[in-house]
Amino acid sequence: MNKPIDIPRFGFGGAGLGNLSREVSDDEAHRTLQAAWDGGLRYFDTSPLYGFGLSELRVGSFLRRQPRAEYVLSTKVGRYMVPPRGRSYDRGMWTAPLDLMPVHDYSYDATMRSLEQSHARLGLADIDIVYIHDVDRRNLGADFDRHYRAAIEGAYRALDELRSQGFVKAIGIGINESDVAADFMAETDLDLVMLAGRYTLIEQPALADCLPMAEKKGVGIVNVGVFNSGVLAKGVSSATYDYGAVPQAVIEKVRSVERVCGSFGITMPAAAAQFSLGHPAIASVVFGMTRPQNVEQTLAYLKEPIPAAFWQALADEGIIGADVPVPAASATDRDR
């Protein structure tokens, strides 16, 4: 597949640096980013939503000290920030975010406003990739249709103009629902789709819609959420699935994966980290990390040898479909 932008195969996801579920100090955030850089990661993703701008501040503070030509940076639009001025608002899963209130708006003007704010927080003149964030039915509920049209007619139009003028290199959407991603690709000319949690070791709904459309239109998929928010990294006893309780059906499937991994002497997180590298539409895989040791462990997972027989065993057990593309070789043999 021809990549629409020279995007590194692996990347660093900055959601956790916005204090997602736990508070991260400035020092720990910096050390984590430094570990990612020292480990060879050169793609960094962030968003205004992450800690309502805190992640962008931290990522920008670190990247301003690095040679600009050596890394790829992405952020997102769909929300801009305003002072709350006494108004109450939902802080969601963010622990100690900045005291700014997100305004959910996919209009043309709001998209430009969001990007201007992102440039200011990052302290950087150039942003390589911009994604339209969270155009999902689950997030938007009854307002989905209205927001979806606004994202097409407002945010996409704004980003398409910026791309044509050379202000950004690539544009895309960051989304949790593979069918919506396919619909959006069908209506637009995207370069990338950042797909969260819908193409993992335990579920691959994207095979039915998003991935075929991506191949048809030459769109690169940036795969994120490959641990399904924790269950494929920590197992069923101490983890979450899509940031919530782990359903029984998922528990049973994860236990089956653990059993096959055990028979091959493979760690489950390594299998989860490497799984999506087998699909030709996957341009990059991005991992969220908040501690230096998380970075070191993730890089080790990507180097762990996994024989072809392991993937065949997963298919034999019915954990993945027989037609699911899998890595031909261990990630050890791939360029980072």
Automatic annotation (TrEMBL):
Which InterPro entries did the record assign? AKR, NAD(P)_OxRdtase_dom_sf, NADP_OxRdtase_dom
Domain NADP-dependent oxidoreductase residue range list: 11-314
The coiled-coil segments of this chain are none
Q: Name one Pfam family in it.
A: Aldo_ket_red
Q: Which domain of life is it from?
A: Bacteria
Q: Which Gene3D superfamilies match?
A: NADP-dependent oxidoreductase domain
* Annotated PANTHER family: GH17980P-RELATED (PTHR42686:SF1)
Q: From the Swiss-Prot or TrEMBL record, give the protein name.
A: Aldo/keto reductase
State the organism of origin. Answer: Pelagibacterium flavum
Lineage, please?
Answer: Bacteria, Pseudomonadati, Pseudomonadota, Alphaproteobacteria, Hyphomicrobiales
